[in-house]
């Protein structure tokens, strides 16, 4: 594998982990009774699967292999924790 393949795999790991975390946050937020907020968040993350698919396709088009490890998501157990964890995730830099 080359450096571009490595970077694309790192990005895939981050995006998959973020998508899992975001979707779990939507579930926690909805369960806490903030359905309007959950619906709004769902609309903002709707494009995440498309982004992941495009990255995977690009990696494969460049002759790479999909090889990454997903970081353990930080979900939270209530509305406050879910929002705080989501905020921390949004601040996380992606090194390219």
In short:
With 96 residues, this protein is an all-alpha fold.
Question: What does this protein structure show overall?
Answer:
This protein is mostly helical and 96 residues long. 70% of the residues lie in helices and 0% in strands. The chain contains 4 helices and no strands. The protein has helices at residues 3-31, 35-45, 48-61, 79-91. α1 (3-31) runs antiparallel to α2 (35-45) and α1 packs antiparallel against α3 (48-61). The longest helix is centred in the first third of the chain and has 29 residues, at 3-31. The radius of gyration is 15 Å and the shape is elongated. The model has no long low-confidence stretch (mean pLDDT 89).
**Radius of gyration in whole Å, from Cα?**
15 Å
Outline: elongated
Mean pLDDT: 89
Our count of helices gives 4
